[in-house]
Amino acid sequence: MTTIKNVAVAGAAGTIGRPIVTHLLASNLFTKITVLTRDASRPLPFPPGSIIIKQVDYSSLSSLESALRGCDAAVSALSFDAISNQTLLVKAAANVGTVKRFIPSEYGNDTLNPLLATIPIYQPKIAIRSLCEQLAVSHPSFSWTTIQNASFLAADWTLDFIVDVKNRRADIKDGGDVLFCATTYEDVAQAVVGVLMNLEETANRPVRTSSVETTQNDIVSIAKDTLVELEGVGKGKDWTVTYSRTEELEAQARKRWAEGDRSEEVVAMFINRAFIGEGWGGYFPVRDNGLLGIKGIGREGLKRIVKERLGME
């Protein structure tokens, strides 16, 4: 049976990369964790001596091949803006011959969904996955897995993106009762560990994860109840609530994108269509939680995250 002992991680200092490396270390399942970085002098938030640091040039195939040689797996956690930088990273992983599994930075919604696949912001992710598919055919020892976690969930901007509970603002989309999946950073990291421990079952396919299934209206309700507990104020008091349709947001975003607008506002419109638009891939009826060792957080865990964002925990 093939086992993974030496793992390389790109983007380890980022929001997703940090918990991934932390979980890889905490699992005690891997012999060596190598962090790829552009700047080897940059401090990293991991215990001294726990990782190997290799400086790389993402524009140099030979540099990446040298860094990955001897690694059994490579995990990318490069940021949204750096997705295209994975092209040479994937090629290097396939070329060295030792990397048995590559996990690209495709965290998020279901890019296999034909509706979502038409949205321009997802094209770089789809291109990288297509490259992985091609290389898995031409390099039999190489394989890939993508992790689809729908919406991210944490007591930070990711929760604010869904409902801004801290400032008591909510833009309710498509009525607010559309069910979607959301996954914590920790469970995304656990998914990485789960993939590397279940190579055969996860080979050359996406795995789908979810810490909780919820709706915008559910989160608003939890936040209002929490504020009653915190402040004793009346339910619904001092909230600013607006309403929109993701179909209209998508249309606006496509028009502005065609005109050259690449602003965060346009990107947000596309993302809202992707995870809240019914049928667009933001809800996974079948998930790989059990295989990957993800227990989920349930409604109580969602309440804890809302409370943390409101400063109660």
Which secondary structure elements does this structure contain, and how are they paired or packed?
Layout lengths: L5 E5 L6 H11 L4 E6 L14 E4 L5 H8 L4 E4 L9 H11 L4 E3 L19 H16 L6 E4 L2 E3 L3 H6 L6 E5 L6 E5 H13 L1 H4 L2 E4 L3 E3 L1 H16 L8 E5 L1 H13 L5 H13 L12 H4 L5 H12 L4
Parallel strand pairs: 1-2, 1-4, 2-3, 4-5, 6-10, 7-9, 8-12
Antiparallel strand pairs: 9-11
How would you summarize what this structure contains?
By secondary structure, this protein is of the alpha/beta class.
DSSP summary: helix tally: 12
Largest sheet: 5 strands, parallel
Shape: globular
Range of helix content: 40-55%
Order of helices and strands: EHEEHEHEHEEHEEHHEEHEHHHH
Q: Round the Cα radius of gyration to an integer and report it.
A: 20 Å
Average pLDDT figure: 93
Distance between the termini: 44 Å
* Topology, number of strands: 12
Instruction: Label the structural class.
Output: alpha/beta
Low-pLDDT sequence parts: none
How do the strands line up in the largest sheet?
3-2-1-4-5
Relative strand content: 15-25%
Keywords: NADP, Oxidoreductase
Domain NmrA-like: 5-223
Pfam families: NmrA (PF05368)
InterPro entries: NAD(P)-bd_dom_sf (IPR036291), NmrA-like (IPR008030), NmrA/Isoflavone_reductase-like (IPR051609)
Description:
This protein has 313 residues and is of the alpha/beta class. It is built from twelve helices and twelve strands. The protein has helices at residues 17-27, 61-68, 86-96, 123-138, 157-162, 185-197, 199-202, 216-231, 246-258, 264-276, 289-292, 298-309; strands at residues 6-10, 32-37, 52-55, 73-76, 101-103, 145-148, 151-153, 169-173, 180-184, 205-208, 212-214, 240-244. A five-stranded parallel sheet has the order 3-2-1-4-5, with helices on both faces. The chain has a three-stranded mixed sheet with strand order 7-9-11. The protein has a two-stranded parallel ribbon with strand order 6-10. Helix 3 (86-96) links the parallel strand 4 (73-76) and strand 5 (101-103). Helix 1 crosses helix 6, helix 2 crosses helix 3 (86-96) and helix 3 packs parallel to helix 4. The radius of gyration is 20 Å and the shape is globular.
